[in-house]
Amino acid sequence: MRNLLGIIxxxxxxxxxxxxxxTTNFIKEIEKADISNLLTISKFQIExxxxxxxxxxxxxxxxxxxxxxxxxxxxxxxxxxxxxxYFVYGKTKVKNNVCDFQGLxxxxxxxxxxxxxxxxxxxxxxxxxxxxxxNPNQSGTGIFKGIFQTSFYLNENGKIIYDALMWVSDGFTNxxxxxxxxxxxxxxxxxxxxxxxxxxxxxxxxxxxGEFSPSEKYAQxxxxxxxxxxxxxxxxPEIESARKxxxxxxxx
Length: 252
Prior knowledge:
Keywords: Signal. The chain is an alpha+beta fold. Helix content is 17%, strand content 41%.
């Protein structure tokens, strides 16, 4: 019930936001494009295409204690038979358990804002549903299902670009996923959300003002290394070790 109410609240919030901003339908243009790079890029540009920034791994949680889950989209391929669908292959990691998954992203809505953060640039968003199936032959696996939203803008050539125009602003986020995970074995369901730079619907877990910061209250649930790696006001061998661990390509 908690998860269902969360999804309903998220949808209502998105709809209210959209209603307060004039938009135009952009679904036909998105259908002709391939937006897989919005979810798989390793770096993006800010300051109107003048500065490159490395895109970090998405942050995410699963369950009531905000246990850390790591999500990696390894391959996203547009469905030639339905241009609004994308085949997804990736991996998840919870504690030391790494699992493969595959599934679909389905785009249901795309809009362009008539007024953007930068007057000379058109911004927009993509909404849809996702369903990912972990390998049932692996340990602790199940099904991810929910909704997502991705923000983009059009550059001067009309190319669809990952929207990081407001990257320096407090609370910046993109590629937000909200939903649940259901175990194959127990049929039990857990809330599971993730995103770039911030996690949607994270309650008291994210205590950061300008940027994502896990509460020490939940550090024991997989966040110790992350917290240490992002400690910038001091240096120590332990902090340096944590940063190296965070950069490991665990999905390879």
